[in-house]
């Protein structure tokens, strides 16, 4: 290995998988890391929570500690992309500030926002089967997670296999739209209109194939 002092500038792509807990984000992210041609990094907030020192956090400080972890996660993703790395982000936009924070930090031209959908009954079935998430977590997140109402690409993990979805995302990368969903959502007026509106999803959900 040579130690370089500089490398050519490069803009990292951020594939942003957003969905409730148990919707299948990590499974798709793992499939993406196998199928994408360029090196990429799967960044999930759980990995950042796991880095925290093990001492219990006092209850009155927990909210602030968690908030700073999420903020740090967003900045770490932005930093990796700014250095030219492609990133697969596995995130739950279950609070409005998280989207605003990401919009302020990421280059919106480089973000591919993917809505990871799954029907509630299937989310609850997966939650029971895995047993490592509090019951009802996905149901509580569902009303907010997709409330911004705009994506570059969407999938339904109850109807499509994660590998099929990963290949669909890969095929989409060279024909990304302009403006991207993130470029549009960066405008507060667009966000206000979409959140008042029908929670419309663009484009429409994919036809069933795979499983
Ligand atoms: N397409 C799928 N079909 C059936 N089961 C799936 C599918 N995708 C994921 N699962 C299962 O659902 C569970 C949750 O998947 P996964 O960990 O990918 O979800 P997640 O959205 O990353 O959840 P969390 O945010 O809670 O970490 C796992 O047990 C996984 O095997």
Automatic annotation (TrEMBL):
It comes from Streptomyces galbus. InterPro entries: CPT, P-loop_NTPase. It comes from the Bacteria. This is AAA family ATPase. Residues 202-211 have a biased composition (Pro residues). It holds the Pfam family CPT. Residues 177-211 are annotated as: Disordered. SUPFAM superfamilies: P-loop containing nucleoside triphosphate hydrolases.
